[in-house]
Amino acid sequence: MSLGDFYDLDFNQFMAILEKWNEKEVAINREQWEMTRYLCFYQTLPNVEDPKRLKLTDVFEFPWDEKSIPEKPDQENSYSNGEMLSRIANYINSKKE
Q1: Which long-range contacts (CB under 8 A, 24 or more apart) does 72-78 make?
Q2: pLDDT tens readout for residues 17-26
Q3: What is the pLDDT of residue 88?
Q4: pLDDT tens-digit profile of 36-82?
Q5: 62: alpha, beta or left, given left = phi > 0 and alpha = psi -120 to 50?
Q6: Contact in structure between 17 and 24 (CB atoms under 8 Å)
Q7: CA distance 64 to 27
Q8: Residue 15 burial (CB < 10 Å; 0-12/13-18/19+)?
Q9: Where along the chain do its domains lie?
Q10: Residue 40: its pLDDT value, please?
């Protein structure tokens, strides 16, 4: 990207580029840590009594290894599709009157 193109960016375009650049850097960093974990895992295998029981997460555990727990929606704010559509239709009709 040339300097002129950079100066022509608006805020939203700049933030989108910055977000994608950050995602790329995080992916590179994660890949490097995964390679380190594999190296340590395979170097540890000869020294373990039962190598079949050893898992990669036993060597290093990273934050991205955690299983994500789905959040439960708030009961007071959760509507079925039909209820939501009828609420939207009622709102639109009230604005027309």
Answers
A1: none
A2: 999 999 999 9
A3: 74
A4: 999 999 998 888 888 888 888 888 888 888 775 556 555 555 667 67
A5: beta
A6: no
A7: 11
A8: exposed
A9: 3-68
A10: 92
- Token pair listed for 17: 């580029």
Burial 45-84 (b: 16+ CB within 10 A, else e): eeeeeeeeeeeeeebeeeeeeeeeeeeeeeeeeeeeeeee
Can you tell me the distance from the alpha carbon of 35 to that of 13, in angstroms, rounded to the nearest whole number? Answer: 33
Measured between alpha carbons, how far is 59 from 44 in angstroms, rounded to an integer? 8
Residue that the structure tokens 């009709």 belong to: 93
Q: Which tokens sit at 15?
A: 């933030």
- The residue type found at 82 is G
